[in-house]
TrEMBL record:
InterPro entries, per database record: Uncharacterised_Rv0898c (IPR020311)
Disordered: region residues: 54-78
Native organism: Klenkia taihuensis
Designated name of the protein: DUF2630 domain-containing protein
Length: 78
């Protein structure tokens, strides 16, 4: 997966998140759970993109970057 693919995935996730949040008055448990899931996937995608860019910046192979587990990514400070 290259940066273009990762950015495309981020865009898709953000679009879905916005659609769900725009209909917030109609949210049930399933919608809230889906928003939380989207947020976790977004955190992972952004982390992967940052890893790839950092590797490229320091002369390493960006292809060596890998998706980190949700438990690890969720613990990062923003």
């Amino acid at each position: 997966m290259d940066e273009k693919d990762i950015l495309g995935r981020i865009h898709e996730l953000v679009e879905e998140e916005h659609r769900l949040r725009d209909s917030a008055a109609e949210h049930g448990d399933a919608e809230r759970a889906r928003v939380a899931e989207l947020e976790r996937h977004l955190d992972q995608a952004w982390d992967l993109l940052r890893q790839r860019r950092a590797k490229r910046q320091y002369g390493e192979d960006p292809g060596e970057a890998g998706e980190r587990p949700e438990s690890q990514v969720e613990g990062y400070l923003q």
